[in-house]
Write a structure and sequence with these properties.
seven-stranded mixed β-sheet, Aspartate Aminotransferase, domain 2, 386 residues, alpha/beta, four-stranded mixed β-sheet, 12 helices, Aspartate Aminotransferase, domain 1, transferase
């Protein structure tokens, strides 16, 4: 049996995989089992921040593997502590809890919000409000937080204590907050799975001011937008925000499982001994990998992400078969006249791997993708859309 047959027989059928087996790669080029080469415009859904087989990433991981690959959180390890320090210094946040995924990072954020609200506003204050069209994870609790009904249908009853409102509808938010039971509002600044839609800065500013007035926590889901993806270290920095809690994952460790929940001074001591934990959270190999990523997210690198974003958007916007281009940085959604799945298939045939988000083609290339590959991929995408 080949890999595809083995997968179909023995792996749970939760993914609609493309008919391609990737076996190797370097940077933004990957090869399949038949030797065909592709430009990777997805980077593992915004995970491989510096592409495949990045040498600095490999060196950091390999060095740590030869030291200690895992140690329980009953002991101290330098990579965990050093990564937490690095993240706090770069963000102005105060403490970090490490986990293994974006959903887990959001679960921790929710626990922080509920405990903080119970201690500061009373036990009845526990509701977490999110935006409609949002996506926050696939655990039962983060599904409940997700503002898309079709994610809820098969898994009732979901965790209670969540509500959502439409982007821009401040009256709806104020109505939800009127009875004093809202602990926090959790938002994505670019709704990734919802169609790569950035939030209007004017709405975000009004939301932030209202939450401060009401002493309600502002929590930002930076699972996909974080770690340089949008042209800043975290997207909230482009909106002039100082959130109480930030969750992130995906590109943080460049290909190893790692989530992080960053807590501001206001909430950094809410979690105490026994309140939360993770067997693999802060794993030294994953932390070493993350340090090798975060240290390279310099102002120059982030400026180059913004430049590349402008470059590819200039090539795509207004092209035949392309209705609109949305997003921020190298997180791009393309509304096409043809069905997105049809465009993806044509791109694969021509050696470019793309993704979808709802009815759009989604691009999440490595942050350091060379200009020539970006231009070549854009031309293939344009041809597929025309």
């Amino acid at each position: 049996m080949n890999t595809i047959e083995l997968d179909q027989q023995f792996v749970a059928s939760t993914y609609k995989r493309f008919p391609v087996e990737i076996v190797s790669g370097k940077g933004s080029l990957v090869q399949d089992a038949n030797g065909k080469e592709y430009i990777d415009m997805g980077s593992g859904i915004a995970v491989s921040s510096f592409g495949v087989a990045d040498e600095l990433w490999i060196a950091a991981v390999e060095k740590q593997i030869h030291s200690v690959q895992h140690m329980s959180n009953l002991f101290y390890t330098a990579p965990c502590a050093n990564l937490a320090k690095l993240l706090c210094e770069k963000t102005g946040m105060s403490k970090v809890f490490f986990s293994n995924s974006g959903a887990e990072a959001n679960e921790c954020a929710i626990k922080v919000a509920r405990k903080w609200a119970a201690e500061n506003k009373g036990p009845a204050c526990s509701t977490i409000v999110t935006l409609k069209n949002s996506f926050h994870g696939r655990t039962l609790t983060t599904l409940a937080a997700t503002g898309q009904d079709h994610f809820h249908e098969l898994f009732q009853p979901l965790t209670p204590g969540f509500a959502s409102f439409a982007v821009g509808d401040m009256d709806a938010l104020k109505a939800l907050c009127a009875n004093g039971t809202v602990a926090a509002v959790l938002i994505e600044l670019v709704q990734g799975e919802g169609g790569v839609i950035p939030l209007d800065p004017a709405f975000v500013k009004e939301l932030d001011a209202y939450l401060k007035e009401q002493n309600i926590l502002l929590m930002i889901d930076e699972v996909q937008t974080g770690n340089g993806r949008t042209g800043s270290l975290y997207a909230y920095m482009q909106y002039g925000l100082h959130p109480d809690v930030v969750s992130t994952a995906k590109g943080l460790a460049g290909g190893l499982p790692m989530g992080a929940t960053l807590m501001s001074e206001k909430v950094c001591n809410v979690l105490s001994y026994g309140d939360h934990g993770s067997t693999f959270g802060g794993n030294p190999v994953a932390a070493a990998a993350a340090i090798s990523v975060v240290e390279r997210l310099t102002d120059d690198l982030l400026a180059d992400v913004t430049r590349k974003s402008k470059l590819i958007r200039s090539l795509l916007e207004g092209a035949p078969g392309i209705e609109s281009v949305t997003g921020l940085g190298l997180m791009i959604g393309i509304k096409t006249v043809k069905p997105a799945a049809e465009v993806l298939a044509a791109c694969r045939e021509s050696g470019v791997l793309c993704l979808t988000a709802k009815d759009k083609v989604r691009l999440l290339p490595a942050l350091n993708i060379p200009d020539d590959l970006l231009i070549k991929a854009a031309e293939v995408i344009k041809q597929a859309c025309a």
